[in-house]
Amino acid sequence: MIDLFNPKDDIAVVVKEVPKTCTRKTVVGDYIRYHYNGTFQDGSGFDTSYQRNSTYNTYIGMGYVIQGMDKALQGLCIGEKRRVILPPHMAYGEKGTGDIIPGSAVLVFDIHVIDFHNPKDLIEIKVTSKPKKCNLTSEVDDLIQYRYNCSLMDGTLLYSSDHYEKAPITTLGANKVIEGLDEGLRGMCVGEKRVVIVPPHLGHGENGAKGVPSSAVLHFELELLDLQKGVPDGYMFVWLGDSPDPLFPAMDLNKDLSVPLEEFTAFINIQVAEGTGRLRPGMDADGIIKDMFNNQDRNRDGKIVAEELKLKVEEDSDKARHEELTHVLSMY
């Protein structure tokens, strides 16, 4: 086999396919995942990523691959296909490598870019549909239900909520989903749809996950189906303004100077109904209220009296236990 080249040759590029939309091109420092077929000038193959059913992944322009490939990987779009021809002085040189690449071989690579990202990337959000009226938006601690499709950047579907009987429910900011998805679900109205692009360091990382390749950029199509405003982590109930002051007379609905569980339950439910307080969503309300009651019923006699809400320095000189009721009601 005789290869034809000039020692002054640069790489040669033949663009075969470019996506209609290309908002960003690869630059030095990006991390790219691509498939390739490697052949000699006579068309005989020496390597292919397709046979391994795995992309080749590398940083661009940082010397992790041969010089010609490092250069050829710059200025590419996601989904682009191109042929690059590398002269030997920008490939494996006069010595070649092992038994695979002979010395002074010209190499031809057909490349297909699957995705790329930069380690400094944040998530990308594109709102595709939004209701005209949007009074509430999702935020940390909210309980939400949402629909999703998750794909690779080449369109390969990985998983979808449509594959399950019920759309998922999660609490935002509770580390229940990958970080990038959690961020992408914030600030949404019920009925809103958006596309969220999640780089791997905010997704499944270098190790990937079941069905998700390592270092994959993920494409999410999201729709918010339901939203219940939440409470801070660790709390079961919060006041949405100032709590009644003094508190006990407000709790003592029948003014008999004691508050049993039934009366305490009625008091809390009134606050929720009137929008002055909020219970943690997604949990049994009666169970939460019972736990709150038990925490205040210090002598376990089945009722709360005014003295049990007073500050007892002898119990805790630094922090009164009843503080949770006068500021935010919380158990656990």
TrEMBL record:
The enzyme's E.C. designation: 5.2.1.8
Principal place of residence: endoplasmic reticulum
Localization per Swiss-Prot or TrEMBL: Endoplasmic reticulum
One Pfam family cited in the UniProt record for this chain: FKBP_C
Residue span, PPIase FKBP-type domain: 29-117, 141-228
Keyword Protease: no
Keywords for the protein's UniProt record, in alphabetical order: Calcium, Endoplasmic reticulum, Glycoprotein, Isomerase, Metal-binding, Repeat, Rotamase, Signal
Top-level taxonomic group: Eukaryota
Entry-linked SUPFAM superfamilies: EF-hand, FKBP-like
Catalysed reactions, as listed in the record: [protein]-peptidylproline (omega=180) = [protein]-peptidylproline (omega=0)
Keyword DNA damage included in the entry's annotation: no
Gene Ontology terms for molecular function: calcium ion binding; peptidyl-prolyl cis-trans isomerase activity
Membrane spanning stretches: none
EF-hand domain segment(s): 284-319
GO CC list: endoplasmic reticulum
PANTHER family: PEPTIDYL-PROLYL CIS-TRANS ISOMERASE FKBP10, PEPTIDYLPROLYL ISOMERASE
Stated role: PPIases accelerate the folding of proteins during protein synthesis.
Protein name, per record: peptidylprolyl isomerase
Species annotation: Oncorhynchus mykiss
